[in-house]
Amino acid sequence: MKTTTGREYCLIVEGAYLSESEAEHALRDPFIEDWVEQTGHFRIHNMGDIEITPGVALGMLGVLMLDDRLFEIASVDPEHPLTEHKAKGVAEAVRRQDMFDEVKVEPREEWDDA
Question: Would you give the distance in Å from CA 66 to the centre of its chain?
Answer without folding.
Answer: 14
